[in-house]
Design a protein that fits this description.
This is Acyl-CoA dehydrogenase. By secondary structure, the protein is an alpha+beta fold. It is built from eleven helices and nine strands. The chain folds into two domains: about 110 residues, Phosphorylase Kinase, domain 1 (2-Layer Sandwich), CATH 3.30.200; about 210 residues, Alpha-Beta Complex (Aminoglycoside 3'-phosphotransferase, Chain: A, domain 2), CATH 3.90.1200.
Length: about 325
Amino acid sequence: MTERSREEQRATVTELANALEGILHPVLGEVTIDDLQRLTGGASRTTWAFVANGRALILRTGERDELHASMELEARVQQRAAAAGAPVPNILAADNSAAALGNPYLICDAVPGETIVRRIFRTLDDAGRARLLAQCAQALAAIHRADADGAGLTAPDELAGWRHRLDEMGDTTATFEWTFRRLEQLRPDPSPMRLVHGDFRMGNLIVDESGLAAVLDWELTHLGEIYEDLAWFCIRAWRFGAPETMGAGGLGSVESFLRAYEDAAGAQVDRDAFRWWLTVATLRWGVICRHQAERHLSGENRSVELAAIGRRVSETEWDLLDLLEGAGPR
């Protein structure tokens, strides 16, 4: 980095700190911003950590788009989930306007803990995994009983949405086409629409010494069936190398997870409906992998990481055939 680049970066940080002081004044009074630093990670949003009068806070910013929930909607949904008992960061401010920071933003308290899954796994014994699995089930049950009325959430057709995403690429596979056809034929009767997180998985959770500390990354929240969240947590990708017998987030068996959810929610989970949604979730991940490969192959974003994700298409095809044949994770 050149000296000029460093100076421009320092100027940007200073401007951002000054803007944050103005944003937080109505909430916290006079504040001084310290230790403002941009964090890695976050595909759709930029994340900053900073300290305001000794209080550790997180800033998330990003352009408004049609794919992700707005910052104000994210904040509203998290507050409702918190009221229902879900562990989420405390929100201090959120605004869809780009006037203050150049983009919409959300500011919340920082939650201590770990998000990197392989590090989390290294700290857990069998009892710790079982405890965290039960806490994940309890968090989802709380999210699903949150009041979604009047929140401004949409209710997309997930299967049709991923069909459209694949068609937009102009590329497909025989396995994907067969799966779409079978899913349409086998679609179960719809269940009640609830608030769903949309991306509930290992990697979007903060874990500390007591277990689940917070559920993060609410930009895909919407109205949907509870099975969508339950199934997404159980696809191969979010096991991070754990064996198939640990099919629920690499923490325990799928059946243990579903039973823990039933205990927390006080309702039965239809295993056939769950299996249908698990197939949808696996197909969703396959389409995402193909899309990431296309970003690399088209030259839009040359990346070894995107190319490597693209190679996992064949992995999802295997899992889809397994599910359609009656096997799958346990």
